[in-house]
Structure formats: structure tokens, C-alpha cells
Amino acid sequence: MDTEDRILPLLPETPAARAAVELVRSCESEPVANHSIRSYLFATLLAEHEGLAPGTDFDAELLFHSCVLHDLGASPSAPGRARFEVEGADLAARFLTEHGFGADRTDLVWEAIALHTSDGIAERRGVLAYLTRRGVGMDFGVGSAFLSDAQGEALHGRYPRLDMATVLVDDIVRQAARSPQAGARYTLPGEFLRERGGPGAVTAVELMARASRWGS
């Protein structure tokens, strides 16, 4: 076991987990796929830090799928008829159903993904939605102060950022431009679409990521 393995959580090795990683690697860019996996690792480290126990306080398998599949709606596989969070939740639910997950567990993942950009709502919809949102946010530096520099270096050494924030916003904007429903006003994708309206425009999220602990 190397140093990284001693300070980072391991990815689950179930057939569904391996298939989920293969799916995001096949339909998302490397920066976005790495972001999705880092979000799971961040969420797991946060749960440990806050004393939340897998199997008691939350379902660790569902947390993996909620985080790793959360940006499927920004990928080319999404139809572009609704906001990316909802389409990502739909695609994740389809994947889980095909891999034998029951409706009760699938619904929890759907909710966590659909709400992962909804500040103040996800946090009140149970531990799974809370950890998913917080894990995603920590990849933008939010709430990551408890992590050691060694953990951050190991995590980013294994899953490099590769200008993730800009690549992800590009993907979300591209999806949002496909229909009025996908880029509706006052939704995150709709606001990204409008922030990117001028030549060379940069979104507030990209600026936040550049100024964060991890960079863009």
C-alpha cells in the first residue's frame, strides 16, 4: 500500500461501481470525470471528519454513485431538454435501475444529484444529499479547511484538475443552450449561459475556483 492509499479513501470495487467509473470516463471529459471522482473522495473525508458512519448514517454505495454520476447531465449523452442537474439525475437513475438497484435507493440518488446545486435545499434533504452537495463544493475549495495539504496533494496527484472549472462550465453552457428549458432563467445553467454571453466572459464560479485553495 503506497502513501496515497493510506491517506485517501479507496473507490469501491463492486461491478456497478466499476461500471459507473467506466461510464463517466466514456462520456465525460477527463477534467469533469476527475472532478466527479474527487467529489466522492471529498464527501467521504467530510463524513469521516463529521463522525458520520457509513451503514448507519448514510449508504456509502449510494454516496459513491451520487457523486460520481452527478455531472452526467452536462455530458453529450444528456438530451438537453431540461436543466443539467435533472437530466443527470435521470441518467443516473437509469444506470442504477439497469444495475439492479431498487426504486427506493435509486430515488435517493436522483434527489441528491438533482439538488446538488441547490444551496439550502440539499442540506435539508438528508445525509446523502448533504454529503453529495458538500463533496462537490469542496472540489471548488468550499469547506475544505479541515483537509491536510498531504491529502489535497495526494488526491490531486491521482485525479488532476486540468482546468476543471472552465471545462465543466463550458459543458454546462453547451447543454443549457440546447433548449429554453435547459437554460431557464434563475437556474444555475441558465445563469452560466448568461454570464458567458460576451466575448471572453468568465463566470463567477470560474473566478471562485481560481481563487480557491485548489485552483481551477
| First-residue to last-residue Cα separation | 30 Å
Report the CATH C-level class of the domain at 12-161: Mainly Alpha
From the 3D coordinates, which CATH architecture of the domain at 12-161 would you assign? Orthogonal Bundle
Sheet bearing the most strands, described? none
Estimated share of beta-strand residues: under 5%
Which properties best describe this structure?
216 residues; mainly alpha; Hypothetical protein af1432; 11 helices; globular; disordered N terminus
Notes on the protein architecture:
The chain is mainly alpha-helical and 216 residues long. It has a domain at 12-161: Hypothetical protein af1432 (Orthogonal Bundle), CATH 1.10.3210. The protein is built from eleven helices and no strands.
